[in-house]
Specification:
Layout (H helix, E strand, L loop, with lengths): L4 E6 L3 H15 L3 E6 L2 H10 L4 E4 L8 H11 L5 E3 L6 H9 L11 H16 L7 H4 L3
Parallel strand pairs: 1-2, 1-3, 3-4
Helix pairs in contact: 2-3
């Protein structure tokens, strides 16, 4: 896998954030550089100064609902794929997240599907594929 890719992980729980960061380090084999943000505001600030290839977004942040966080990140970085990673996801929430601009939604504890989604996104971005949903592509 070529790289290095820049991934922003927005996750308020330190153990969950460490799990996602470790997954990126082990499966990414040095090809993924991770920036950590412990809350939505820190994540939005990180998006001000840099371009990321992917944003991993916790959907249960204390200062924002999942859809508010998704919208805020999408407005700040409209061309950056967002991969929400909740502890649990219903079919309706997955559908709504996709409608609101998420590429996919993966459950945080399911490491193999999580890495598969990350790897797919990063690989598609390497080849210049259109990985942005139509709702996010408006106004490019």
């Amino acid at each position: 896998m070529p790289g290095p890719w820049e991934v922003l992980v927005i996750e308020d729980d330190a153990l969950d954030r460490a799990l996602v960061v470790e997954l990126m380090a082990v499966r990414g084999r040095g090809g993924v550089r991770v920036t950590e943000a412990s809350d939505l505001q820190a994540g939005l600030t990180a998006l001000d100064g840099r371009r990321f290839d992917l944003v991993m977004l916790d959907t249960k942040l204390p200062e924002a609902t999942a859809l508010h966080a998704l919208r805020a990140v999408g407005e700040k970085a409209p061309l950056t794929p967002i991969l929400p990673h909740p502890a649990y996801i219903s079919v309706q929430t997955r559908h709504t997240a996709r409608q609101r601009g998420a590429f996919d939604v993966v459950v945080r504890g399911d490491l193999n599907p999580m890495w598969a989604a990350v790897n797919k996104l990063l690989t598609l971005s390497t080849f210049g594929s259109d990985i942005h949903p139509p709702a996010r592509a408006v106004g490019q």
